[in-house]
Amino acid sequence: MAKKNKIVDLNLKPVKVTAKHLESLQGLVNNINAVQFKIGNIETSKHSLLHQYAEIQEMVAEKQKELKTEYGTFDVDLKDGTINYPVDGESRN
After folding, report:
1. How many Cα atoms within 13 Å fall on the side-chain side of residue 3?
2. 76 φ/ψ angles, rounded to the nearest 5 degrees
3. Could you report the per-residue pLDDT of 21-70, keeping only the tens digit for each?
4. Residue 83 dihedral angles phi and psi, to the nearest 5°
5. What is the pLDDT of residues 7-24, one digit of tens each?
6. CA-CA distance, 66 to 81, in Å (whole number)?
7. CA distances from 61 to 58, 64, 66, 74 (A)
8. Long-range contact set of residues 66-71: C-beta below 8 Å, sequence gap at least 24
9. Rounded to whole angstroms, how far apart are CA atoms 27 and 62?
10. Is 89 helix (H, G, I), strand (E, B) or coil?
11. Where is 13: in which H helix or E strand?
């Protein structure tokens, strides 16, 4: 059977995309928006965690000062609390 050639008027331009194309495009944009929203949530959580991390580092520095004042060093075994004094008697910390 012979194919019928479809005559297309090149002067006529479509006004809208097909419903199938529109639905596909909307789905892709919705996916992008959802991912961007999730990234925003992750970055907000990361920001908060970085602040907490900095606060904890400050607390560690204060505890080190306290231990150095009281024991002359802050080199302590975290398993059992043993103070690791330098062999030569001078503080390493």
Report:
1. 3
2. -125, 135
3. 999 999 999 999 999 999 999 999 999 999 999 999 999 999 999 999 99
4. -85, 130
5. 767 778 888 999 999 999
6. 15
7. 5, 5, 9, 10
8. 68/93
9. 53
10. coil
11. none
Closest CA to 93 of 66, 64, 63: 64
Distances (CA, A) of 89 to 4, 10, 29, 63, 69: 100, 93, 67, 22, 15
Task: Look up residue 75 and give its amino acid.
Answer: D
- Whether the model clears a pTM of 0.85, i.e. scores above it, the answer is no
- Residues 6+ away with beta carbon under 8 Å from 68: 74, 91, 93
**Tokens for 72?**
């002359």
Residue reference for tokens 């505890």: 63
- CB 68: neighbour CB atoms within 10 A? 14
CA distance 33 to 13: 30
Contact (Cβ atoms closer than 8 angstroms) between residue 23 and residue 17: no
